[in-house]
Amino acid sequence: MTEKSTQAKVDEAQTAALELAKLDDDERSAGLHAIADAIDAHHEEILEANEKDVEEAETLLEEGKYSQALVDRLKLSESKLESITEMVRSVAEQDDPLEKTLASRRLDDDLELYKVAVPIGVIGTVFESRPDALVQIAALSLKSGNAVMLKGGSEASHSNRVLYEIIVEATADKPDGWAQLIEAREDVNAMLEMDDSIDLLMPRGSSEFVRYIQDNTSIPVLGHTEGVCHVYVDADADLEMATEIAYDAKVQYPAVCNAVETLLIHEDVAEAFLPEIAARYDDADVELRGDEASQELVEMEAATEDDWSTEYGDLILSIKIVDSLEAALDHITEYSSKHTESIVTEDADRASTFMRSLDSASVFHNASTRFSDGFRFGLGAEVGISTGKIHARGPVGLEGLTTYKYHLEGDGQIVGTYAGADAKPFLHEEFDGEWTPGRLSE
């Protein structure tokens, strides 16, 4: 069989998007449960494909071409597959994001305007080595009524292909072509030129990669960039709590974008806190890189200027001792990627200052940065973390995959009635009302 061109796949997705948007929530959610059931039934097949990817990646790791973090993100397991299907079912159980009435306004008697949530249309995605990203993105797209172009990294090609085939087979009763897999690197550049066919691009990768996408397309881009996240241990922190948070934020899963990369410590608690957390990190094989003040308290490598702006994605952490909350804020403002920051403190005023002073998508008080996640936020899943400010921000779930349009329900009104010397005035009254087709005819 001849491989379809990228244009042919996008054309199919456009047609499917129009049909998908007309499916009711029960039909879309049933498709998600079918996907979850199919993944559960094909664990062996998926893990065999994933093993091929991991073996190839480990060879490239030995050659210095891949990082350990990439290999870690690539690996699937029985428990990981179980969490993937739990995520899919969670998305299915979310409230329907479509046809919600966002605002209702009476322009005149029997002339009612409704602002209604609708799908975006065709979404193009390019994502990194995690095969579960393909399932997350596909699940959120189906639930939100969007067709989706899926381009995963070549390092996960075997896993992605099997998962994609399972998804397509499980949703054979849904509009044909709603999900499309593209695998060649040149297909990405082809997508960038399709501003008349693709409505939104969502790249997940490094800042450099996202900037490349933004600089080479006129399609709107929802950027999911790197995570240089911070935890600041304040002078008024509960140090036992701070130890648990700082440990979890780095060690629980270091290869992901919401893991902490820089730990800031107020000088008043550094002597009591740093040796304690350093011992915990040492047990977990975390490599520490610190400023001069940190090195005086604990033996560690010297941090370079580059360390402060690096997303390690690994068991590496930079540490800095600061003399004030303001110094911590200045450091984060200078080096943060605007992903997620956390303060550990018992002082509510200082917590408030911290949270209101930073421009990151998520800012936490007394909690690990690892909570910055669509599933943990109750969104079902996420297509990624948006560090931009337009359209969607932070973990992007179903709401971030919708836009809106206006529905006007009338009874024969014309603009001429409301224009000229004897113009009838508009009422422009807000009211509580849900749009339904033919509302005024009922």
Fill in the keyword field for this structure.
alpha/beta, 442 residues, 17 strands, 7-stranded parallel β-sheet
Please give a quick description of this structure.
By secondary structure, the protein is of the alpha/beta class. The protein has 14 helices and 17 strands. The strands form four sheets. The chain has a seven-stranded parallel beta sheet, sandwiched between helices. Strands 16-2-1-17 form a four-stranded antiparallel beta sheet, with no helix packed on it.
Largest sheet entry? 7 strands, parallel
Please state roughly what percent of the residues sit in beta strands, choosing from under 5%, 5-15%, 15-25%, 25-35%, 35-45% or over 45%: 15-25%
List segments where confidence is low: pLDDT < 50 over at least 5 consecutive residues.
Answer: none
Number of discrete helical segments: 14
Polypeptide structure, described:
The termini are far apart. The longest helix has 20 residues, at 43-62. A seven-stranded parallel β-sheet has the order 10-9-11-8-7-12-13, sandwiched between helices. By secondary structure, it is α/β, with parallel strands linked by helices. Helix 2 runs antiparallel to helix 5 (78-92), helix 3 (43-62) runs antiparallel to helix 4 and helix 6 packs parallel to helix 7 (157-170). The mean pLDDT is 92. It contains 14 helices and 17 strands.
